[in-house]
Amino acid sequence: MTIAKYNMMKYNDRIAVAVSGGKDSLSLLYILAKIERNFPKASLVAISVDEGVRGYRGKAIRMAAENCKKLGIEHCIVSFKEFYGYTQDDVVRRLKKGDKTELTPCAYCGVLRRKALNIAAREVRANKVATAHTLDDETQTILLNILHGDPLRIAREKPLTDVVHPDLVQRIKPFCEIPERETTLYAYIKKIKFQDAPCPYASQAIRNDIRLFLNRMEYRHAGTKFTVFKSIEKIRPAIEKIVTRVELNKCSECGEPTNERTCKACQMLQQLSVL
Questions:
Q1: Which residues span the domain enclosing 143?
Q2: Average pLDDT across the chain, whole number
Q3: Can you give the pLDDT at residue 274?
């Protein structure tokens, strides 16, 4: 229903599904695979980004590969080490030496993962990337943007992103109105094997505090997450009107689209190189 509501997919899309190996992304993969069977001109490819977290990511990648093989879906695996020369573990070790920006490991991981996913999606000739962001993820991101003092970013964080540059693959979020507990239930009912351990670095992020806050609010006031999401959907058109459209350039370091001289990922990598 969410897919139809936001007109997320066309009959001839080639969709890259971001598959981490967790319950949300694998549930999305199974659902999209079922839908895709009814559209012979459409195709799916799964993309997994190996961030390089020892004792954690390896199992998740194996789970992703096993499920892709079971569904008969092409599986592309890319890594931080391949793209950037660092694993996430390397990033964390360097940050401990003294990152003056005080960014968390999750901040680096998020930026680097989005860039890797976009490049990989272009390489497999996908015209859309489907991510398994749930209602929980979306409401957390809304509050994060506000707490970081960047509420105008809400204009860009849509269920279906705008096409703003030919090198930025359009993104869709079919689970954006689905509570995380429902994707979990689906995975268990379908007996999907998934990575159930959390990332060892997740507890350091402010998102974790927001997650706990929203879960407490939802427990005491059922419907809180839906209310936050729907409220933003109502005011987003007004926010879009005051957001200045920025023309994207090519990053001077890597050539990827950016609204600055160098993209955020390259800025972070430059920071890491001097630690």
A1: 2-234
A2: 93
A3: 75
